[in-house]
Amino acid sequence: MSRSIRLAVIPGDGIGQEVVAQGLKVLGAALPQDVKLETKSYDLGARRWHATGETLTDAELESLKDHDAILLGAIGDPSVPSGVLERGLLLKLRFAFDHYVNLRPSKLFPNTTTPLAGRPDIDFVVVREGTEGPYVGNGGSLRTGTPAEVATEVSLNTAYGVERVVRDAYERANSRPRKKLTLVHKNNVLVHAGHLWKNIFDKVGAEYPDVTTDYLHVDAATIFFVTQPERFDVIVTDNLFGDILTDLAAAVTGGIGLAASGNINPSGAFPSMFEPVHGSAPDIAGTGKADPTATILSVALLLQHLGYADEAARIEAAVAEDLTERDAARTTDEIGDALAARVSG
Ligand SMILES: NC(=O)c1ccc[n+]([C@@H]2O[C@H](COP(=O)([O-])OP(=O)(O)OC[C@H]3O[C@@H](n4cnc5c(N)ncnc54)[C@H](O)[C@@H]3O)[C@@H](O)[C@H]2O)c1
Ligand SMILES: CC(C)[C@H](C(=O)O)[C@@H](O)C(=O)O
Ligand SMILES: [Mg+2]
Predict the structure, then answer these.
(1) Is residue 104 domain-resident?
(2) ipTM computed for the complex
(3) Ligand 1 center from residue 105 Cα (angstroms)
(4) Is 75 near ligand 1, meaning CB less than 6 Å away?
(5) Could you tell me whether strands 139-142 and 150-153 are parallel, antiparallel, or unpaired per DSSP bridges?
């Protein structure tokens, strides 16, 4: 039986273009011969906005829906006012396609740089809520631009939204050997949202007697990410805390150039979207210094999601092998070539 993958590709801005090219190279090398890969590239991001004023049209959203998955590079450029592309494109996609599970795994790969003493055995996954919290755009400003300006950015937390992501995190914890789930929030101060999260965490936990649970305030969690990262297995947290914690996780496990993510719609009603955790890195765009590994590992998450577990594992193994021998001076292209060769060889 012939199989096929319909993949939408959004290279985006800055290094997004460079790393996505390498991700596609490795995807092509990893797929079995009988799998037909159909890609459709979308010209979205700063260039398009300057040319047309558009970020993402309804017609494009409809067309993107008609795919098995989306691969995204990065969005954002200094020439565009902050927030226009981030909200009008990236968050619009996450919200429209109900990507409520933002999955961000962290592993300390061999031979990577880490500021951590003793190279602890780090292998955890952050389940970041992806559709609520302070990201919903619930706010505004009064007397804008005056000395009396007041601005609000109200975090939205619904029992429905919290319960579904917490349940997903319990399922993931239950299927991993250590079966441990940590809730990270700030319920000593954010008592309304914090208690909603904690109550639902405890209620759903009663259905998972084999999962050990823990709670940390987000400030304390940042301590343990650095001093005791091996204590974590699965972490569930809100949209903003998850954003911040996963850049920190990347920094202690080999660098932001290795951190992969999946924006998952578990129901399958909409395509899930895979992207590196990092942004468009305007400071290194066009220099060949961008590490494409985060995108390539995001391709592995994409394959895993579509049921190609062996191919995903081959990519992960190729990354681990490559890192043990990697020469720091290698370019974006050279890393992509080396990984594609390992995966197909
Ligand atoms: N998912 C996304 O599309 C996404 C994620 C984060 C930031 N952004 C956007 O990207 C733009 C730049 O944001 P920023 O500078 O805060 O974050 P960034 O992640 O782009 O860069 C932070 C630092 O990490 C480095 N870096 C990032 N990716 C790297 C890679 N693959 N290899 C080597 N070094 C890498 C950069 O050079 C920079 O020094 C902003 O417009 C921001 O909104 C987009
Ligand atoms: C660009 C921005 C909207 C985005 C986020 O905050 O989610 C980014 O930082 C990320 O981590 O994917
Ligand atoms: Mg981020």
Answers:
(1) no
(2) 0.99
(3) 18
(4) yes
(5) antiparallel
